[in-house]
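Weekly modeling sync, notes
Attendees: S.R. (lead), two postdocs, one rotation student

Agenda item 3: backlog of single-chain predictions. S.R. asked that every request posted to the team notebook include the full sequence so nobody has to chase files. The rotation student volunteered to paste the first one in as an example of the format we agreed on. Action items at the bottom.

Example entry:
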Amino acid sequence: MEVDSEDYHDYVFRQGKLVGEFEQMYRKAKEIPWHQDKIADELDLSIARSFARVRSPYDTILDVGCGLGYFAHELSGLGRNVYGIDVSPTAIQKLKARFPHIEACVADITERQGDRPLFPGISDFDLVVCRGLFWYVFPCMREVVANITTWVKDRGCLLIHQNFPDLEGNFVGKDVIPTPARLAEFFLEGGTFRVVYANVLEDRAKSKGNDNWHTFLLEKAGQDRR
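Predicted structure, as returned to the notebook:
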């Protein structure tokens, strides 16, 4: 679907439905989507970084849905090799120009990636990070969860940092992810992961928005625990 707008919101949701035209968004939007370049000092991101730091340093870190790479850059201090994937080729091109120390590639996580490596010689990671991701991929949760699970090494960690609106109201994706607990369950089912830490940051000042952040640090089971 062709979208003609300078407002990045128009490429994400429209009239209560997911649009998901992220490549067009990164080519046409006037401002940086989600203000990725201005939120490093936000409290929710400080919490996410603190959770990730618990098991650091990591040899390999993967930021899923990395966008322009600002959060991946913030994670650089926690590991030796930071990688990013995004569905938008334009986003990846801009990331490489701005953050050459981050290796990044185009990948659509709503399609099963199988066992083929995302990067040469690298098929799984010590830490996989998903920040604010799931409202944009919820129609394909089975594929998304399978991909992410494959990318986390045994005994590696998965950091989920997801914003939620008021759970009493209606919101896009509620039929699939009605609560933060249900989001975590997608990964906890079958004992594949266990919760290491969990946190809720409720922004009372923006309670009618999408600014209540739920953070989970999960550990993937090793072969001897399955």
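Discussion: group reviewed the output briefly. The first strand starts at residue 13 and ends at 14.
Action items: rotation student to repeat for the remaining queue; S.R. to check formatting next week.
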